[in-house]
Fold this protein.
Amino acid sequence: MNADALSPPSLPFNPDILRWAREWRGRSVAEAAHKAGVSEEKLFSWERGETVPTVRQGRVLAGFYDRPFLEFFLSRRPNVAESDLVPDFRLHRDHPDPKGDRELKVIQAWAEDIRLNALDLFALVGEQPPSLPNGFHATLDTNPERAANEARAHSTFSAENQIALKGAERGKLSKLLRRSIEEMGVLVLKESAIGRYGVRGMTVFATPLPIVVFGAEAPTAQAFTMAHELGHIMLQQSAISGPPSASDARNEIERAERWCDEFAGAFLVPADSMTKVWAKPNVPVAQIGDQLLGQLANTFSVSRHAMLIRLVQLSYVEKRFYWEIMRPKFLQQEAEFKGGGRSLYYGSRFRGSVGDMYTGLVLDAWGNGRITNHNAAELMGTKSLRHLFDIRDHFTQ
């Protein structure tokens, strides 16, 4: 028998779609070839229609391009509706970054899909999605201190509870704050990749269920980022946020970022709580020692960076000490942060990504037989049933 007769037939990959999918996702030929385990010339030959990938290679590329595998066999390019990237409020950004923007669009699309899934799950379990508290709204002319106090009044996590955290409990501030923000009717998601593009947080404002996305910063830094993005929720504003900038607030974007930074500081360290810990000096001090700064940060379970920003806002410490001396050091330390240790259980990464509100909805619908094992795993972003059962078994922890 002819050996060719035993070979499986070549699949009808559309080379034009192979090329389009790579370019749509913003992947280079080198990146795609490396991912598929072939040479760049081999990848080019697939895109020219001279040769075709194997099924395994095709599936690898589909995953790398974030496109359905079967799309590679269409006769023409799909008509993909794409949302605009939310407004960019990164004050330090000097030039466009098409690759970074492409990646951020993918993260935004993922977050929006999670929100739509959550709304469907609320309907499946027969519940109404939570709404933001009445009056949860501010403008740039609103005093951020007053707005932060208003937000704290709606929070189940009080400043007194925050100050009462001791020792190892202080590392839980970001988790407690995340839960509190979700209880206000906000979907809070985590995506580590946003930090690669100079992004600390993203807000997609929609009602119900506006979205906040934060990254893989230190837990205390995550708390400040979440509080900053909550400020954008109060402003009813979608935004991509970066590190604070020393430039004057000359336009609406800069004003909004200043406002949200001040809101975050006031939310995490209320002025009246601060005065109980350290009486305000008559004039700002020129600098503050590491030991005292660390003690104050520990009192409120926030980062030293967030605490110094707050001390400058409240006129405890001169602005120059932060902007000229300490800020570069803090940003360097944050850039070098490598993340925590191993997760406590297998499924914690997936739960940590989508948060407890969404995880609870999936488990509720699954437990009531509204969705299958496969549906539940897919909604949690895992292909492993072991992860799914692990998430369920540890959900109350």
